[in-house]
Amino acid sequence: MSLMITDECINCDVCEPECPNNAISQGEEIYEIDPNKCTECVGHFDTPQCREVCPVDCIPNDPKHVENQEQLMDKFLKLTADK
User: Which GO molecular-function terms appear in the entry (predicted)?
Assistant: First the structure.
């Protein structure tokens, strides 16, 4: 499943550069994660890098975008196919 950033985000700017899929961007008020690009770092790292660096622990699973490991890997392969 993709991840999401909650309104507890303090806009510290540390998560955005850590995302290997460029899924994180500044929203109107807080950072946001594009569910079409988020693979929870599957294919890149063992754990989601945004969660590793977030100082306020505001990046839970997104219940609106449930995906299993296989689906996340398929998304990773599609995102990196052109690279």
Answer: 4 iron, 4 sulfur cluster binding; metal ion binding
Instruction: Please check whether residue 43 is in contact with residue 68, taking contact to mean a CB–CB distance below 8 angstroms.
Output: no
Other CB atoms within 10 Å distance of the CB of residue 53: 14
> What's phi and psi for 26, nearest 5 deg?
-75, 125
- pLDDT tens for each residue of 6-25: 999 999 999 999 999 999 99
What local confidence, expressed as pLDDT, does residue 8 receive? 97
- Tell me which residue of 68, 80, 58, 70 sits closest to 2, measured CA to CA: 68
pTM surpassing 0.90?
A: yes
Is 11 domain-assigned?
no
DSSP 3: B
Q: Is residue 2 part of a domain?
A: no
Burial label, 6 (beta-carbon count in 10 A; 0-12, 13-18, 19+): exposed
